[in-house]
Write a structure and sequence with these properties.
This protein is mostly helical. It has three helices and no strands.
C-alpha cells in the first residue's frame, strides 16, 4: 500500500515562502495577488494564499 506524503521537513508545502517572497518583491498584497490570479482563471481566495504562505495548507503538484 502506498502512503501519501503530506509533509516535507515538517512543512505542508515548500512553495509558500517562495510565493510570499515573490509577492512582496512585486509589491502585491495578498488580495491583489488573488485578484490577478482570478483574472487569469485561477479560482483562489486571499485566505487560501495566506494559508499557503503560512504553511497551513498543503499544495499539490497539480496546483503548482
Amino acid at each position: 500500500m502506498n502512503k501519501r506524503v503530506t509533509y516535507f521537513n515538517n512543512e505542508k508545502n515548500i512553495s509558500g515562502r517562495l510565493i510570499q517572497d515573490l509577492r512582496k518583491k512585486f509589491n502585491l498584497s495578498v488580495e491583489d495577488l488573488a485578484i490577478k490570479l482570478q483574472l487569469e482563471g485561477i479560482d483562489i481566495s486571499a485566505q487560501v494564499i495566506r494559508n499557503i504562505e503560512n504553511n497551513k495548507r498543503t499544495v499539490t503538484d497539480f496546483e503548482i
